[in-house]
Amino acid sequence: MLEVLIKRGVASLLDEDKIGSEEILKRVWLENRAPSELRELPRDFYVRARLSMVGGDQRSVRIYAQQLRELAQLRLRKILTLLAVNPGIADSRDFLDKLTIEEEELVKSIAPIIREFLNAVVGLQ
Q1: 78 and 103 Cβ atoms separated by less than 8 Å
Q2: Which of 38, 48, 99, 121 is the most buried (most CB within 10 A)?
Q3: What is the CB neighbour count within 10 angstroms for residue 14?
Q4: How many CB atoms lie within 10 A of CB 107?
């Protein structure tokens, strides 16, 4: 709903709530710097990032979206690797605190499937 209001010019994000391209690139760099470690992201990072690109010109929105996708894919790869190694990590508050809202929902939905798969492969079902 906020996205529609921003597009219509009725609402806008405060400057301190916006996430710029530089911030996304910094996060990509930090994630790449520690390939086996998942860095903490603010819970609302993706929401604020998506809202920050509303109203931009087509070229800058495309570049911004590519950078955001790169960050999401990088983090997804790490999250899936961590879950594959230890599905129980999905119950760890330390792990969950590093995730955005969207990532936490993904973890909660996929962790049981990974546990079930691993148990079936090992023959524990």
Answers
A1: no
A2: 99
A3: 6
A4: 21
